[in-house]
Amino acid sequence: MTLLAVERIKLFTTRSPWWCLLTALTVTVGLAALITATAEADFPLTVEVTQFGRMFGLMVVMVMAALAITTEYRFSTIRSTFQAIPNRTAALLAKTLVVALLAMVIGELAAFGSFGIATLIQPEANLAISSAADWRLVAGTGLVYGLSAVLAVAVGVLLRQSAGAISVLMIWPLLVETLVPVIPRVGDDIAKWLPFTAVDQFLAGPTGNPPLSPWGSLAYFAGVCVVLLAAALVTANKRDA
Amino acid sequence: MTLLAVERIKLFTTRSPWWCTLIALGVTVGFAALMAGTAEADVPMTVSASQFGYGFGLVVVMVMAALAVTTEYRFSTIRATFQAIPNRSAALLAKTVVVALLAGVIGLLAAFGSWGVATMMTPDVDLAINTAFEWRAVAGVGLVYAIAAVVAVAVGILVRHSAGAISLLLIYTNLVENLVTLIPTVGPKIHQWLPFNLAHHFLTGNPDPTGRPDQFGPGLSDATVGPWPAVAIFAGFGLLMLLISLVVANRRDA
Amino acid sequence: MIEAVGLTKRYGKTLAVDNLSFTVPTGRVTGFLGPNGAGKSTTMRMILGLDAPTGGSALIDGKHYRDLHQPLRTVGALLDAKWVHPNRSARAHLQWMAKSNKINPKRVDEVLDIVGLTSVANKRAGGFSLGMSQRLGIAAALLGDPQVLLFDEPVNGLDPEGILWIRKFMHRLAEEGRTVFVSSHLLSEMALTAQELVVIGRGKLISQTSTEDFVAQATENTVRVRSPHLSALRTALGRTGVSLRDEGDSLVVTGMDCAEIGELAASTGAVLHELSPQRGSLEEAFMQLTGDSVEYHAGLAETIDLVAAGK
Ligand SMILES: Nc1ncnc2c1ncn2[C@@H]1O[C@H](COP(=O)(O)OP(=O)(O)OP(=O)(O)O)[C@@H](O)[C@H]1O
Ligand SMILES: [Mg+2]
C-alpha cells in the first residue's frame, strides 16, 4: 500500500497526467458531441457511434502511461526510486498498477461521458445501454484503457526513452495492425491474432470470423500485456538503473 | 551554404538519423519483401503493391525530423545554435532543408529498394516502371517524405517536446484524418482536402487507365483533385506550418 | 565593452531582471555577483540575444548581439556546460560551431588543446564529467578568438586545480585586452578573479565598483575593547569622532586601529582587559549587502542544527 501511495504522489505531482486526462476527456467527449450534433436520418445514432473517439483516448492514455516511466529514466528519478525501494519489481508493479487504475478511470469517464453527451444532445434518439454488447462497448473501455496502460508502461520500461516508446505505441496499433491484412494469403490469419484487433473484437465485435469470443479476445489482450510486463520487469531487474 | 553544412554536421554527428534511416529502409523494404513473398496468381505483385509499406517509412521519417528539432530544445543546443547564428529564420530554414533532403533521399532509397526487392523476388512479373502513375508511385515517395519532414520540423519547433510532437504527428496522420471521414455529411468533404490524404492521393490515386488490383491494398484516397495539385496542396500545407513555426521561434525566448 | 541600459525581464509574474544598467570595461575581468536567483543567467541570456528583454537593451561594442556579423568571432560564451548533444563528440560539437561562423577548422584542435581535451575529443560529450563539460564549454567560447567573453559560473563543479586554471586563464584573457564578464554567487571566488564587480540582488543593481574598493569596504576593520573603565574610555573615544557600538560588556570601535586606541586608553588612564582587531569576512559583507535581496532564504543555520542534532 505504501508503494501505491508513493507512486500516486509521484504521478499526480507532475503535470503530464493532468494534461493527458484533460485531453483524453475533451477529445473523446468532444468528438461524441460533434458527431451526435451532425448526425442525420441517413446516419442513425447508435451506442457504437457515441464511442467514436475511443481510439484517440486510448492513444493519449498510452502516451501518458509510457511517459510516466520514461520521464523517470530521463530525469534519472528512477535511480532515486530504486534507491528508496530496492525491490525493483515491487516498485515498478506499484507504478503499473497506479497508472493502469488512472487509465481505467479515464476510460470509464470518457466512455460514459461520450454516451452521456450524446443522449443530452439527441434525447429523441432513445439511446440506451441495454444489451451485453452495449455494456461491453461502453463499460469495457475502462478495462481496455487499463490494460493498454500496462502495455505502455512495459514498453516504456523496455525502451526507456519517450520518443522511441511513443513511436512504437502509436505506430503499432495505428499502422502495423491496419497494414498487416493487406499481405496476401497470410495477412488475415496473422491479423486475427494482433492484440489491438482483439481489443476491437472485444469492444465492438464479434465481427467477421474471430477465433475468440469477445471476452476471450480481452483475455488474450490481457495476456499479451502481462507477458510484456513480465519481460519488462525481468529486464529492469537485470540491467543497471 | 555554410548554414546547410552546419546543419549537416549537426544531423550526422548524432545517432538518431542513422537509426531512423536504417529503420525506415528496413520496414519499407521488408514489407515489400513480405508482399512479394506472399504474392500469388490471383493477388499478383504490382509496382504499386511494392509501395504499400510507404506509410511505415513515412512515420519513421517524421519522427526523425521532429527529433532533429526537439532534441535541440531538450539539450538546449538550440541556444548554442542561435548564439552562433542569431538569424533564427536562417538557422531553422537550413535545418529544415537538410532534414527534408535526407528524408527525400530516404524516401527514394526506400521506394526503389522496395521495388528492387519485389522485382528480384517475383522475376516472372513485369514490374517495369513505365507509366506516369508508376513513376509517381515510386519516385513520388521521396517527395512525400521530404514534405512530411518539413511538417514534422515545423511541429517540432512549435511543440519543442519530443513526446508531444511525436504524439501529435502520429495521432494526426494515422488517426485523426481517418476519423474525420466518420463525421456525418461534412466529414468526407473535409477529408478530401486533408494534407496526408492528399499525399496518399498523389502516390496511389488516379491510376493509369489499364487499372490495377487495388482491392488488395490500403484503401485509396477519396481526394478528387489531380495528383499534382494534390501534392502541391500538401507542400503548401508544409510551407504554411513552417512559416508559422518560424514566426513563433523568432518571437519567443530561445 | 558590454553595456546594459535599463535591462528588464519579466517571466509571467516574476521580475527576473529589474531596470539593470551597468558597463563591462575592456581589458579587465569583471565579476557579476549576486545570490542564487538574482538574475545573472537571465541577464547573460539577454546579452546573447537568446531571451528578448521586456525593456531596455544590452549592447556589445554598441551593437545588439543579433546584428553582429559572425557573432562567435566577437563574443564567446559559456552559459551552461550542458548545452551539448550528449551523443555528439566534443570535436563534432566544436566543428559545427566553427563551420557556422566560417572559423578555420584547425582552430577546433587548437582550442581542444588549450582546454586539455585532445585525448577525449572523439568521445561522446554525454559521458563527460562536469569538469570536462566545463572545459568543452570554454573551448566553444574561445573558438572564434573573440574580444568579449561571457562565463556563467565557470568554476561550478571544478576541482581546486581546475578553479586555479580558470582563474589564471581569465586573467590572461583580460591581459590580452579582452572583455571578460564572469558570474558567480561566491564573493570570495570573485575577489580573487575579478578586478571589477557588478553586484546585483533580485534583478536590481546593488553596486558597480572595483573589487579593491568593494573588498576594502567589506572588510572594514573594527576593534573590540573590554575595560573596567568603559564609560571613561567611551567619552574619550567619542571626542575623536569614531563610530562606537556596544556589544555585551565590550565596545566595538570602527575607524581607529589598536595602537591608537591603546595610546588613548593610556592617556585616559583606562585599564584594558581586551584589545582585539576584528575582521569582517567577505561573505558577511556580501550577505549584508544583498541580505534583503536574497530570493531563497534556506534557513541554512537551522537546517545544520537539525542535522547536527541527528533529527
Ligand atoms: N525561463 C524562465 N521562466 C520563468 N522564470 C525564469 C526563467 N528563467 C529565470 N527565471 C526566474 O528568474 C529569476 C532569475 O533567475 P536566474 O537564473 O537569472 O538567476 P541566477 O542569478 O542565474 O541564479 P543562480 O545563481 O542560481 O544561477 C529566478 O527567480 C528564476 O526563477
Ligand atoms: Mg545562473
Automatic annotation (TrEMBL), chain A:
Transmembrane segments: 18-39, 51-71, 92-117, 137-159, 166-184, 218-236
Keywords: Membrane, Transmembrane, Transmembrane helix
Protein name as catalogued: ABC-2 type transport system permease protein
From TrEMBL, chain B:
TM region positions: 18-39, 51-71, 92-117, 137-159, 166-187, 228-249
Keyword check for ATP-binding: no
Keyword Transmembrane helix assigned: yes
Assigned keywords, A-Z: Membrane, Transmembrane, Transmembrane helix
Domain of life of the native organism: Bacteria
Annotated protein name in UniProt: ABC transporter permease
Source organism (scientific name): Actinokineospora xionganensis
From TrEMBL, chain C:
Keywords: ATP-binding, Nucleotide-binding, Transport
Stretches assigned to coiled coil: none
SUPFAM superfamilies reported for this sequence: P-loop containing nucleoside triphosphate hydrolases
InterPro entries the UniProt entry points to: AAA+_ATPase, ABC_transporter-like_ATP-bd, ABC_transporter-like_CS, P-loop_NTPase
The keyword Transport is assigned to this record: yes
CDD domains hit by this protein: ABC_BcrA_bacitracin_resist
Domain ABC transporter: 2-227
Gene Ontology MF annotations: ATP binding
Family: Belongs to the ABC transporter superfamily.
Protein name, entry field: ABC transporter ATP-binding protein
